[in-house]
Specification:
Elements (H helix, E strand, L loop, with lengths): L6 E4 L5 E4 L6 E5 L2 E8 L4 E7 L7 E3 L5 E7 L2 E7 L2 E10 L4 E4 L3 E7 L3 E7 L7 E4 L13
Antiparallel strand pairs: 1-2, 3-4, 4-5, 5-12, 6-13, 7-10, 7-12, 8-9, 8-11
C-alpha cells in the first residue's frame, strides 16, 4: 500500500522506482459494456475493456494510435483487416493469455462470445478513432474509443 506520495519502492530484482500513489480507474460506459481507464499520460494509456457476450466494439482504425491487447478472461474473436479493403477482415479466436499488437491503420474489432475482459496498453490518442461500422448507430467518423 502506498501511504505517502512519491514513496520509493525496491522491486525483487533490485530496481528502485518512485510511486506517486495508486490510481482509481475511471469507468466509461459503452454500448457493448464499459472500459476502465487506468492511466493516461502524454506517452501511454492503459485500460481494461469489458465486452458482454454477443457484443462487439465498432469496426475501426486509428490514424496515429497503436495498441496492444491482452485477453485476461473470457473468449471471443478479433477481426483484422486493411484500410485498403474495408470489407475484408480475418476473424481469429481470442482467449485468455493471447496478446495482439495493432498498428495504426489496421482495421479491427473485438467481439465477445462470453464476457470478455481485455487489458489494453496504447499510445495516448484516445480520440483517434475512425469507425468503419457500428451496430449501435454511432457516427462512422466520430471521436471517442470503441
Amino acid at each position: 500500500m502506498c501511504d505517502a506520495p512519491d514513496a520509493i519502492y525496491a522491486s525483487a530484482d533490485g530496481l528502485r522506482t518512485v510511486a506517486s500513489g495508486f490510481l482509481t480507474p475511471r469507468i466509461v460506459g459503452k454500448p457493448w459494456s464499459h472500459e476502465e481507464l487506468i492511466v493516461l499520460t502524454d506517452r501511454y494509456a492503459a485500460k481494461i475493456l469489458v465486452v458482454e457476450p454477443g457484443q462487439r466494439l465498432s469496426v475501426q482504425y486509428h490514424a496515429r494510435k497503436t495498441e496492444t491487447l491482452l485477453c485476461v478472461d473470457g473468449d471471443g474473436w478479433v477481426e483484422l483487416g486493411s484500410i485498403d479493403d474495408l470489407a475484408r477482415r480475418e476473424r481469429t479466436p481470442f482467449g485468455p493469455g493471447q496478446a495482439l499488437h495493432i498498428a495504426h491503420g489496421t482495421v479491427h474489432t473485438i467481439k465477445g462470445r462470453t464476457k470478455l475482459t481485455v487489458f489494453e496498453v496504447s499510445t495516448p490518442e484516445l480520440d483517434d478513432v475512425v469507425r468503419v461500422e457500428d451496430r449501435y448507430g454511432r457516427a462512422p467518423r466520430a471521436g471517442g474509443q470503441g
